[in-house]
From TrEMBL:
N-formimidoyl-L-glutamate binds at Y142, N317, G319. It comes from Halomonas salipaludis. The keyword Zinc applies. It is found in: Cytoplasm. InterPro entries: Amidohydro-rel, HutI, Metal-dep_hydrolase_composite, Metal_Hydrolase. This is Imidazolonepropionase.
Length: 406
């Protein structure tokens, strides 16, 4: 090899969490041409092969790059005033009924230019990246007109072009009823189905379509219309469902083969079975549970028993989860929802990728052939990432094979 630059890079003697489990012995991971080329126990590694590689690090905990599969990080304005109202006892639903909540962010988002939204969202995304995120989903849903929803999605796409992170976009036109349709929610759903989804699809701006199925948002029948329109355009679907009550939105989403049902605090046994049968992911959002001081826990044991994959995400948004810290969510998933640290980590790696339809590409996993999105952490064990709330432990962030944080 003398005189030539090694093309392969090596992380050696690492404690490896591969997206599903922690390996019991020290491991070597070799990356070549943006992909993981080899994952092997140190004891069985070929020394000559290791010597050919450029050594990037020795020791530490290596995990897949984190996948934050549910965020609303493009938005205008702030809802700090509502935070204070909620502390005084006004509920999230009551604030929404008074025209605040999501609609207050809609007003600020409509008033903002694309450049202003981009400038506001960029540091939020950078905060996630600084704590290990390499893939992030970003929803629209604060525009609620065709042009404002497309504006949000364009900002999301631009963020993915400007920063070393994979951005997956989701059209959430059916997030709240805009004031122009105050007495005509079916009319608004018609707009979503007949204009918004076709326009987003025509411009290639949406990777998936989402809804908010709730008393303060849209009924199961309305959400089903949105799912059918998405399917007509070949777009996968997701749902905010069973967050505040049990309407059956998750089961409806499952009937349409949803990638995921998200929140699901009020999911019942039939809903769990529906997710299991459809192969949908249960996305847990402990940040919203914490911020809204909810008391109804998602049915973790039933999901576990049924073998439904559980993802964990920040739900980063200005209202129900103004939290831009993925490792804090690992902690919340354990302390609030009683996930094991391994389950929480799988939730932000392999299962997060599955909730975005990216599992087949190998994202969220450390395995030969997968894209080389990796995080090297200065901790003793993978579980420590969930155990201690301590930003700043990310030693290296590798995006698409290249070091992006050191
Ligand atoms: N539940 C509905 N949508 C968002 C909240 C959006 C907001 O409050 O601005 C969520 O995922 O929690
Ligand atoms: Zn959400």
């Amino acid at each position: 090899m003398s005189g030539t630059q090694p093309t392969a890079t090596l992380w050696r003697d690492v404690t490896l969490f591969d997206g599903h489990r922690t390996h019991p012995e020290p491991m070597a991971v070799i990356v070549e041409a943006n992909r993981i080329a080899q994952v092997v126990p140190m004891a069985r590694a070929d020394d000559a092969r290791l010597a050919e590689c450029r050594e990037m690090a020795r020791g530490g905990v290596l995990t897949p790059g984190l996948v934050d599969c549910h965020t609303h990080l493009v938005f205008g304005g702030s809802r700090a005033d509502e935070f204070e109202q909620r502390l005084e006892g006004v509920s999230y639903e009551e604030i929404a009924r008074r025209g605040g909540g999501i609609l207050s962010t809609v007003n600020a988002t409509r008033a903002a230019s694309e450049d202003e939204l981009f400038a506001a969202a960029r540091p939020r995304l950078e905060a996630l990246m600084a704590e290990g995120v390499t893939t992030v989903e970003i929803k629209s849903g604060y525009g609620l007109t065709v042009s404002d929803e497309l504006k949000m999605l364009r900002v999301a796409r631009r963020l993915g072009e400007a920063l070393p992170v994979r951005v997956v976009t989701t059209l959430l036109g059916a997030h709240a009823l805009p004031p122009e349709f105050a007495n005509d929610s079916d009319g608004y759903i018609r707009l979503v189905c007949e204009e918004m989804i076709p326009a987003a699809d025509a411009d290639g701006l949406a990777d998936a379509v989402d809804v908010f199925c709730e008393k303060i948002a849209f009924s199961v029948a309305q959400c089903e219309r949105v799912f059918a329109a998405a399917k007509d355009h070949g777009l996968p679907i997701k749902a905010h469902a069973e967050q505040l009550s049990s309407l059956g939105g998750s089961a409806a989403a499952a009937r349409f083969g949803a990638l995921s049902a998200d929140h699901i605090e009020y999911l019942d046994e039939a809903g769990v079975a529906a997710l299991r049968d459809a192969g949908s992911v249960a996305v847990l959002l402990p940040g919203a549970y914490h911020t809204l001081r909810e008391t109804q826990l998602p049915p973790i044991d039933a999901l576990r028993r049924a073998g439904v994959p559980m993802a964990v995400a920040t739900d980063a948004n200005p209202g129900s989860s103004p939290i831009f810290d993925p490792t804090l969510m690992l902690n919340f998933a354990c302390t609030l929802f009683r996930l094991t640290p391994q389950e929480a980590l799988a939730g932000m790696t392999a299962h997060g990728a599955q909730a975005l339809g990216l599992a087949e590409q190998g994202l969220g996993r450390i395995q030969a052939g997968a894209p080389a999105d990796l995080c090297l952490w200065d901790v003793d064990t993978p579980a420590a990432l969930a155990y201690a709330v301590q930003p700043g432990r990310l030693r290296q962030r590798i995006f698409n094979g290249a070091l992006r944080h050191d």
